[in-house]
Amino acid sequence: MSLNALLIGMTLASWRSNGSVVLGDVTDILAYQLAPAARTQLGLPTWPDTADGFEAAYLAVRRTFHAAETVMDPSPLPKRRLSRADAARLEQEADQEKLAAQRRLLVEVTNRLVEASLAPARPHIEAVWDGPVAVDATPIRTFSRGVANSDPQTATDPDAAWYVREGDHRDPSNTPGGGTERKKAKRIIYGFEATLVVTGETSPGPRGDSHNPNPDNEHHLPALVLAFTVHKPGHDPAGNALTALRDVHRRGYQPGWLAADRAYNAALPETFHIPVRDLGYRPIWDYRIDQLGIQGSHGGALLVDGTWYCPHLPEALITVTSDLLDKKIDKDTWRSRANARAAYRLRPKAAPDDRGARRMLCPAAGTHPTVACPVKRRSLGRDPRHPVVDAPPTTAGHPEVCRKESLTFARDIGVRHWQELDHGLAPWTHHYFRLRNRVEHFNSYAKDHEAIERSRTRRIRGVAAQSLLLAFQIAHANQRKLTSWLDTLPVDDQPARRRPSNRHKLKNPRSWTPKGYLADPTPGT
After folding, report:
1. pTM here?
2. Among candidates 393, 358, 395, which has minimal Cα distance to 374?
3. Which residues contact 265 (CB under 8 A, 6 or more apart)?
4. pLDDT tens string 263-304
5. For 217, phi and psi rounded to 5 degrees?
6. What backbone phi and psi angles, to 5 degrees, belong to 164?
7. N or C: which end of the chain has fewer CB within 10 A?
């Protein structure tokens, strides 16, 4: 049996079974339900309609499937129980270059299956979507029963691992002193994680902006998966996300905003932040409480909550978010202070050069300063509403950013925390939460309809087999969402077949704080 025939049979089986693929159903379709002309075109032999005939056809399907997934398997382990000593030996003796090549092939093949679900609507996608994506990982079970780490043998699916909801999702019993923590976890799953790249919202700005007069336009693209990878829970989240994003780039999709949770911006810059920006994405981050405040400095400029500010930014504005989380100030005070920081922000002077370096203007420099600073006397007396910078003279002299009109920032300076949007202000809130909500929506949608988290829909062990079967489930979810969306669009001057679903009322991003929304927001302010 050819691989082409097998993939066609798996596609037909997924359409009939809400995305899930069972090789018995594939066998029934290829052996007995295709028209004779189709079976001849696929080079399928004739199997008698008997128990022995079905068994022969089933064996042909199984052999072809396992031959395909074996050449793409990035794991050297057999898919059965074996001693932990044997498992460690096999992993140590494996050809790592060969396994890396097989992993690249697995990512390419599975995402080609996902791309097939998007291809018919790709012109429509590119017409209304400008590149924003969200990245997140979701747990999926495997059809294998996990065993304790103290067990001398592995589970029947040794490629999988325990997923624990808290922390970085790794099994805490694998870490020193963490043997009892798993019992306290709220949720435990034996299986894998799937890192998904999901299309984001296309509206350009928050509610009330003049350039976004119709935020409820029915032409908004639905949440679709562009690429995915399957891996052990909590293992190299940034690397797996980068692998999926590179496959999106390989297929020619334009880059845009990128939202990811705190597990990703905690990675090393050279392993995630710099490669992601090299692909053209513009990250939007949130921060842990221990990452707030001053995150770095350059030429005297301060990186505070992801934004470069004047060296003389008042202390109350530096610690504003941590003060709110420590309950030293209330939400209204946080909002007023967060807005007050904008005047001290360094402004971009020009677009980044070909090496990613960018020049930033001091807030007191240029023809339109935003603060009044005695160091740059031209900024004085411009506008009585501008805050006055307190820049006392020092024996070492003023910082470099104060002595110059602008300062050059190489691409790797502050890249781990720096982002283009001011953390907590309306544009950041609008983009970050819409993107994060989109990926959470798709996770919930596919778990409800395609049952991607349940093990019964993927009964073949191994990371390669799980990836192939999950690809058909994701493709099916994409197809259903695209079908519903395309029915809301007028085609060839014909009216739409159905109304778009009613969107829930959006919250005003200008009323958000790290401790929740303000009680009585004023629309459009």
Report:
1. 0.89
2. 393
3. 272, 273, 283, 285, 286, 287, 416, 417
4. 888 889 999 999 999 999 999 999 989 899 999 999 999 999
5. -60, 130
6. -120, 130
7. C
